[in-house]
## 1
Amino acid sequence: MKKESKFEPKIVTFICTRSSHAMQKRRELKFPDNVKVIRIICLGRINPSFIFKTFERGADGVLLIGCPIDECQYSFGSKLAEEHLFTTKKIGNLLGIDKARLKLVNISLTKDLKFKSKVNKFFRDVKKLGPSPLSNR
Amino acid sequence: MNILTETIKKTNVYFCLDCGKCTSICPVALRNPEYSPRKVINAAVHSTPEEFFKSELLWECLTCKTCKERCPSDVYFSGFIRDVRSAAMEKEKKPECSHSGTLQTLMRIMTKPALSQNRLGWVTPNLKTSKENDYLYFVGCSPYLDAYFEYLDIDTIHSSRSAIKLLNRIGIEPTLLENERCCGHDLLWTGDVENFKKLAELNIEEIKKSGCKKIVVSCPECYNTLKVDYPKYLGDFGIEVIHITKLLVENLENDKLKFRNFKQKIEVTFQDPCRLGRYSGIYEEPRKLLEAIGKLEIIEMPRSRKGSICCGTSAWANCNMVSKQIQTDRLKEAKSTDADLLVTACSKCQIHFKCAMNDENTPESAKIKNVDLISLLADRLK
Ligand code: SF4
Ligand code: SF4
């Protein structure tokens, strides 16, 4: 039990440029040290390869942060990300990766989407799950 | 002796007569004037390993083995390519992987010992399988391919279900492995021998644990890998590996296997997969099975059996314009037979052809309905 409470999951976050500005503007949470943030131009840039590579390299959780579909500045980016996420989840399920280890959270400049609580819940869930079976730990 | 010289010796490359027969038949050379197996051989013999391993030409070959069929000097060029790729990989030279490398990443994920998959969700109650049986059915990557290539409307799961249906019909209720891993074919042929071996060891361990005496395989690549490469790289593991078509043909004569006739005459043409044909010598079995369906006639493409042309990409690496041209050429050849259907026996051939046909630039003369052999057979069971 003791070991579990000390466990600090390795989390990788892919965040789009616009969402990253939104986070700063709204003074949303600061990421803890165990979260590695990778900024990409738009969440539409991700594909299953990004996510699986991250798990392969030892992440315990992968968080995607992007704009709601109707606010994406590339218009198709967020939708594309959701499609990729759908395929990734299906394959992730085959691989036995717990679905709580991978989450997409939207942030908006104009609407309150409960961003902070969703992200914190994700962090808690991953911590509860313990090390990923793919993490070699 | 350096690794390059050693590989050259092992694969008869020194015996090259520089006759060019390989170049005249190689599908890549036909479309890419920069490439020729003979040229690669020359470069290998005349350059230092450091120079040679840097060459992009190393990754162009489809390893389809067509050149070996023609070579008067028995040069095993695709074997040479496989081995030099692994040497190049050790020097951090890597192929360009298609689909952003997703499929290779999945394979490497499967080398993790703690992996615990949910890969058998597709086994419906009508399919009879057993916890323990003399026969084990090695499924291959169909659940993963089905999920990844959904947009191409392929149905690799249907093919796996069909294989079990056919096995059930001949009285076999096979064991399936809950944690079967990728056979490692694509890693081996793109030079990642280390991870190939990890996968092979994990699979052999699970296979042995199952207590089976024979392994039935429908995927041509898994078949060749389990039958030839596992023993080659890890030693004989003592269990017979059989291709499903061989087993089915044996059962054609007794009453166990009968197919419903087509109502109207149908003509089909058959794509010999490289790993089933040239690598394993299985040419007749798929044809005998197709001919067992009444009112079905096989029309051969001009280039078939040993001379069959590869589907244009292999091991999810180096898919490029040349691949597309090879695919379009081959599809046109299939269409020119006037057959109603192109029957494929490898899910990758199917994926590559469907992808080519999805391309808006592909002309109608290269579009033909495509079905999987095992699915077709199971769908016609009496
Ligand atoms: S066919 Fe054989 S002998 Fe002739 S050039 Fe090619 S590899 Fe050399
Ligand atoms: S194996 Fe196939 S692609 Fe490679 S050189 Fe020989 S004929 Fe060409």
## 2
Amino acid sequence: MYVEMKNISKSFADCKACDDISFGIEQGKLVALLGPSGSGKTTLLRMIAGLEIQDGGDILIDGRVVNDVPGKDREIGFVFQNYALFRYMTVYDNIAYGLKIKKVPAKQIRETVMELIGLVGLSGMEKRYPAQLSGGQKQRVAFARALALKPKLLLLDEPFAAIDAKVRKELRNWLKDMISRVGITSIFVTHDQDEAVEVADDILIINEGRLEQIGRPLDIYKHPNTPFVAQFIGSSVVLDSFTGFKGFDEVKNDSKVVIRPEFVEAFKGDNPRFNKLISAAEKGTLRNIQFRGNCLEISLEVNGVILSTNRSLERRPVRIGDEMYVIVYRIYVINNEETAVHKNVLLKDINVEML
Amino acid sequence: MMNKKAYKRIIPGFGLSFGITLLYLGFIVIIPLCSLVIFTAGISPGVFLETVTRPRVLSSYMVSFSTALAAAVVDAVMGVIIAWVLVRYQFPGKKLMNGIIELPFALPTAVAGISLTHLTTDKGWIGKMFHDAFGIDIAYTRLGITVALVFIGIPFVVRSVEPVLEKMDRGVEEAADMLGAGRTKIFFDIILPEIAPALFSGFSLSFARGLGEYGSVVFIAGNKPYETEIAPLMILSQLQEYDYTSATAIALVMLIAAFIILLINSYIQSRSAKITGGMA
Ligand SMILES: Nc1ncnc2c1ncn2[C@@H]1O[C@H](COP(=O)(O)OP(=O)(O)O)[C@@H](O)[C@H]1O
Ligand SMILES: [Mg+2]
């Protein structure tokens, strides 16, 4: 483990920003800290960087307890949320700043800076001031500046938040590519699940100052540990109770049921393709239709609960109020941090993947 | 041909407000100042030069410039420290302290002058202390003039620098810190360039004000010719002798000096605006 957090807590006045958080990050990994706004991601990142001191717990970097080591001596590069570039310095001077402080010989500074400027694709812009750069270019300067001292750990706070949607996708791939080229252990903060899933090797999900789950994106998607994670990763419906649905036993006590759109199928009664499934389906009424760019998301009321599913644009048009058959392939049942997958027992003999 | 639509503005009332601005500038600022120039233009260059190079006049310029400059420098340093404390720290009485900053603006300058003089004569609280401890006299010396000008000029610097410090992104300091910069380096490399334009603005205003300050200075100066006689006093004494020609000639030199200071300031402001606005 390159970075280890052990029982980290941090409060601001009466607001618990981090509550007994423990995790480890392996060397060379690109990790996303994912959570809704105000969940404590920035605070956690700043504590790793030594910009904030934890109230309790230990932070280890490369096996060394760094609780009392100032940030500048932790060999960390930090990319701030709004870049925090030095406005009165050129691109070149911004990147060179840390090297000048370290009193690196001028010739070597020049070499390092020019190499970094080349790496981030800003050749020819070294004499510009930050105000003359686009958001994406500022981001690149901030990235290069953070790398100039050859840190062993790179921390990025919402690196794409201030960039418009179009460029953001491009920059995501760019950053992933850069980080793997430099080969540096990196942690980035984001509130956008798509960003985390696309860019990160591992995802840490934070909610209200607590660590909900850590793991590979696909594993988290397939096995959410908590209702929060199930809801936050991928879209899904969370139900407090799920009773008397065809093919499922009643879910008892205070377990929660999570149903993803992929787990639900809706079809008209005269559709021959689903003939065999009708016996396992419930009747529902179409309540809402939303266009999702490449499909429709339709919501149906079934036995008093609203379920939603995605419908291909190639299929028959449907209208609000239509009566449809609704089948649920499987559900997540989550209680006390444990997730179980329950399958529709009426479909035991049918290979639903072949439909 | 320009498209007429291009002149349409979202904020209405440009014509009216610009007209009022021009009228104001014309009546209150430009016309009175021009009249000074025109009046002086009536004097032959020889007379003008003779007037402004009289040894007593020259020495009064010297007194005014040196004390105003020294006071502006002190104001710049002290003003940054006060603004820093007001912006960055929380302490009881902060609101009161913030209010007191403007006192020199609100107080009749004569009141300030008299009280400062009382304090700093060799019988006053502070004056006695300095006289006994270091053998330094404050009142009736150039030091005294400087003290009065520091008092008058400090709000200019505090009020210019304060909003800039308030707006400054703390992340920039943290970024420098993560790159290994110590406190002193952070101040000189990061904070100073950010506040420099505002600081220079406060400095020039305080300098220009110091050049022309009369009320708070005459009491503490003692007005000894060749030693503590300030230029505004020279103008006044010429007026009292009904020598309008000399008075305006001396005044014109002051006007030009103030104008140059403000011109330099405006150049510096526009240069820094270019860097932060992306037009450098
Ligand atoms: N300097 C601070 N002073 C007081 N409260 C803070 C401070 N920084 C963060 N907080 C609080 O801590 C919580 C977590 O904040 P933050 O770590 O910034 O969340 P995130 O980055 O996930 O949006 C929030 O409720 C926020 O209001
Ligand atoms: Mg944040």
